[in-house]
Amino acid sequence: MRSPTPMRASADCGAVFSGWHAAGHLGWTRSEEEVDLWLVRFEDLDLALADGCLSSEERSRAASYLGRDLRDNFVKRRVWARRVVSQYAMCPWNEISFSYGAHGKPVPVGPGSGVPWVNWSFSDSFCLLAIGRNGDVGVDIQKVTPFPDIEGVAELALHRREIEFLRENPSENNAFFDIWARREAVFKGMGQGLHEAMTTISVIAENGDYLSTITGHSGDTWQLRAASGVPGYALAVSWRDAGKPSDACVA
Question: N or C, where is the chain less crowded by C-beta within 10 Å?
């Protein structure tokens, strides 16, 4: 699959997004092995490009948001995702559309056979998009904020190894968001809701290290990485990898 060549932009973001490359009006991009990651701030996106491009389902979802900013940001990220995907599919951006799985996993649709695998996530003022160059992909971004009941949530939602990792970590709050971003990236890649297997999959190994591969419930293998470069946020990406053995199994 062809990867777009990032364009130079005038915005000075080097000090903020270490390791990311300016890609003009599309935001910033970087590569994580089999995946291209695209990052943008909502404030940098143009709402005027949305006319006529959203599906009826997307328009209904946009209308369901109570606040204008929430509605506008929903529309902006759908338009932005189309523009990025079209760079890979080599077609006009308004010829890209999206269908959605049972848990909201996006599936891009467009002319030709070059439409890539995608997944997206947003938190606060940022939207993160993952393009799977060779297979399915999941991604998550989390703003790291003080969390009042980490232990309560951990007992309900995390694997025993993840709970032990948090208890032994001096920076429990940061570790919680690192774990959660990884979990979200894996489950979103598999197209599952978190509630379906909350405590049966761990992103922490028995030795206390973060895992780099995960086995899903169907036996497929997922590579898992944390992305860096955006201070105050936890980022993670996963992608399906049938060619490598995993170092973790479903408990």
Answer: C
